[in-house]
Write the C-alpha cells for this entry.
Amino acid sequence: MEESATQEEIPGGSPSAGPSRSLVSVAGLVAGATLLSKGIGFVRQALIAAVYGSGPEYSAFGVAYILPGFLLILLGGINGPFHSAIVSVLKKQRDRDREDAAAWLESISTLVGCLLLLVSLGLWWGADWVVRLNAPGASPEVHALAAAQLRIMAPLALLSGWIGIGFGALNAAEHYALPALSPLISSLAVIGILVTLGWTGIPTLLAWGVLIGAIAQWLAQIPLQMRLGLGRPRLRFEWGSPQVRAVGLLMLPAVISSGMIHINVYVDLFFASFVPGDRTIGNLGYAQLLVQTPLGILSNMVLVPLMPLYAQLAGDGSRWPELRQRIRQGLMLTAIVTLPLSMLLVALAEPIVQVAYQRGRFTPEVTQEVAALLMAYGLGMTGYLLRDVLVRIFYALEDGATPLRISSMAIGLNALLDFLFLQAFGAPGIALATAGVNLIAVIGLGIRLHQRLPGIPWREMGQALLPLLGSTVLAGGLSHWLWRQMRPLELLGSPLLTAVIGAGLAAGLGLSLFAAGALYLRIPEVEWAAARLRKRVGRWGSQWASRN
C-alpha cells in the first residue's frame, strides 16, 4: 500500500521534494476511505431518522451525546489535538529515537488513560447534573432519557484518548487507511443494533451502539500498532521522558483550544433547549451531519497529508519559504473545494434533506425545519475548514497558545450571537452565529500567523478568491432557480424522485458554472488540480485501451 518518494509541484511555487508519499496519493487514499466511512455514516443517520424521526428519543440522545461525543471528536478524532500532537512529535523524533517510540507512546497512553478514567467516572456519577446543565429547558421525559444514555456512554471519555493517540501514531508512520476507515466501525455497530433490535422500542439502543462502536475502533488499532513497534496496551509510567513532556506541552493548550471550539456546540444546544418543543436539538443534529459528512472528507483530504509536512517544514526555520508555499496551497485548496459544496448546501437544502431523511417519522414539516438550519450551516462551511487548517499550522509551529486565546474569545462571541440571532431568526440564527464566529476566528488566526510568519501571499490569495466567491454566488443562484422550476413537476407522481432528479440537474448546473468560472480565473491551484485530473484520466484511458 505504501508508495515510493515522489516529486510534486507546489501550485504557485517551485518543485519540492515531497514526503515519502505524495500529497495527491495520500489525499486520494484518505478521501476514498473517508468517503466509504461517511457513506456508511449517512446510512446510519438515515436509519436513525426513520426509526426516531425528530421526537424526544433522538433529542434525548443529542443531549446525552454532547459531552461523550465532544470528547470522542476532540480527543479521538483525526486532526484532533491528540492526533496533531502525536504526529508533530513523532514525525520529528521517530527517525532518531525509533527504539524509544513504543516506550513513550505507552507512557502517554497510561497518563491519558488515568486522567480520562476519572472523567468517565465523573460523567457516570453526575449524569443528571450534566444533563440539567446541558439542556436546562428540556422536558422531564427528555431529561430522564438523556441521563440514562449518558451513563451508558460515559466510557467514551477513556476510549477517545486511546483512539486519538493511536490515530496519531499510525499517521506519523504513514498508515492512513485504518484511521480513515475507523468511523465506519462505529457506524456499523449502530446500524447493527438498530436493524436487529430497533423494533423493540428500547430507548437506549443508540447509546449502546455508540459505545460498542468505540470499543471496536480502539481494538482495531492495536494489532497494527504492535506490528509497527508503536506500543501495546500496557501500563508504563515513564512520564518524565522528553517526548512525553513535548507532547504534553503541545497537547494541553491544543486540547483546551480545540475544546473551546467544541464548547460552542454546547452553547448552541444550551440556547436550542429553550426553543418551544423538543425538536430543535434533534434538528440541529440532523443538519450538522449533512454538513459534517462532506467536511470530514475534505478535512481529512487536506489536513491528513499536510499536517506531517507542516511539522517537518516548521522545524528550524531553514525550510520556511517552502512552508509558506505549502500554507498557501492548503488554504487555497480548502477554499476551492468547500465553496462549491457550500453553494449546493445553501441552494439545494430542501431536496438534500428530503432525499436524506424524509421517510418514516421524519415528516415534510421537519424537512423544512432542518433545511433552514442546513442553509445557515452551509454558509459557514468554508470558514469552518479554513479555521481548522490555520489551527493546525500553529500546532506545527508548536504554538498552541494563539489558537487558545482566539478560541476563548470566540466562546463569548458565540453566546452573544446565539442570543441575538435566536431572537431575530429563530432556530437558524444559532447556525448563523456559528458561521459568523468561524469567520471572525479565521481573520484573527490569519492576522497572528502573518505576524509570526511574514511573507505568506495573503493579497494574491484574496485577489484570486474574491472573484471566485462572486462566481460561486451566481452559480448557486442559478442552481436554486432551476430547482424551483422543477419542484412542482411531480415526476412520475413521486416527490422523492422529483427531488433526486431536480436536485441532481440543479447541482450539475451549479458545479459546471463554478468549474467554468474557476478555470477562467486561472487560479494556479485550480490549473494544477485540472492538470492532475487530465493526466489521471489519460492514464485510465490508456490502460483501458491496452486491455481492449
About this structure: The longest helix spans residues 280-313. The first strand starts at residue 7 and ends at 9. DSSP finds 21 helices and two strands in the chain. The chain has a mean pLDDT of 80.
